[in-house]
TrEMBL record:
Any Pfam family the entry gives: Rotamase_3
Protein name: Chaperone SurA
Role, per record: Chaperone involved in the correct folding and assembly of outer membrane proteins. Recognizes specific patterns of aromatic residues and the orientation of their side chains, which are found more frequently in integral outer membrane proteins. May act in both early periplasmic and late outer membrane-associated steps of protein maturation.
Known catalytic reactions: [protein]-peptidylproline (omega=180) = [protein]-peptidylproline (omega=0)
Amino acid sequence: MMSFDHVMRRTLSATVCLLLAGTTWAQTAGKQAAPQAAAQPAAQPSQFVDGIAAIVNKQVITLRQLEQETNKATAQLARQNIPAPEGDILRKQVLQRMIIDTLLDQEAERLNIKVNDAQVESAVLSIARRNNLTPDQLRAEINKSGAQWEDYLGDLKLEIRNDQLRHRVVENQIMVSDAEVDSFLKNQHRGNRLSALGGAGQQAPEPLMLGLSQILVAVPEGASASQVAQLRAKAESLLQRLNTGADFAALAASASDGPEALKGGEMGMRPVDGWPDLFIEAVRQVPEGGVSGLIQSGNGFHIIKVVSRADSSPPVAVANQTAEQGANAAPTGPVMVTQTRARHILIKASPAMTEERAVQRLEQLRQRIEMGESFDDLARRYSEDASAPQGGDLGWATPGDMVPQFEQAMDALQPGQLSPVVQSPFGWHLIKVEERRTKDMEDEYRRMQARQQLFQRRAEPAFEEWLGQLHGQAFIDNRLEPQSRRRAR
């Protein structure tokens, strides 16, 4: 039985999300801060003489910081040809985004989540390779676009940090049962038969990639029935404006409560299976450029725009396929995969265990193993992973089961070989490869694909719900909206 403990709970990392979503250097660079020569927003309201824009728990966001970020947002909107909202509205939107970023910073610090230079360099290399560029060429192209390389790296670092937060606080809590996988595959098989036979209920093929934007009218946790009704009326009014010709991006920038509001509501392009079921169903019959009706989730009321659809057929199956052919390929023959059985010792960083001490402890354990002590015994005594009682044994792992940092280090080892100390989003590892085998995994691969698709549909809504709870439990004193001040519960 394949283990699904911490190490094997792999989801889309920040870099993989960028690549699968078809994000190129130009798209990413286009969202960076523009030069400081951009148009300045209106002067700050004179009543804020204390220089404080907001307090988030015990952390202050100053008016100077707000002004700087508002300048960047103004330039970003101009680069995207999105009309900027009026000064006061824009400042409120920017401040809301800064409050969310501050909450994420605080939570990452609490969980001792840090992103080092090596992780950023690895992400840059992956993006460059995806675009057939060297890292130096990527940097040159980004600078040529008018963005600053340092800003690009800063945003990329935040994406990696947020992805690690998802791993830690949300994705480890999402479980997909075997019964759900069975049901998914059964429905998929039924749909394929109807399509092949031209039977009743036949649907057009789903696009492989889907680009969406949204306008979100958020509903606070614990809102009364009258508040929900008022917010629904607001959302319906926004939908009416869109139906009578209002520009979606401009309306999102001025009225959406979503984190992507200042990008015109753009959420990017992802594989269809990476979107929540609610969104997929809402836009199933919506043409490119069209807008959905009003849809309600646990976060509030959404209006979804279909920005782009990428329709293409899966690759033609061949006799011997591999798991690397991609998540959208549907194998119809043997899928020969090289599996690895490995053990590991995990030490997690914490306030009581700094990263330096974690690395030092694993280096000491590595020396003891090289001197003849049993890896299994030391894993049972020192590893902080669920595999510790089994001597760190992770069972047979298929490519894609492990988080990328762990898998790369494991793949570089020969059977019987011991790794150097390796960092992943879960902590620091010492890895030993026991053996490898090649196996036909056609059935397992189909189930793995189904499980991953179901998992991805739940991950983003779960993270948004967690973020809403984090926001609702914090002390936030927003000086631009004094009525929103509240204390942490």
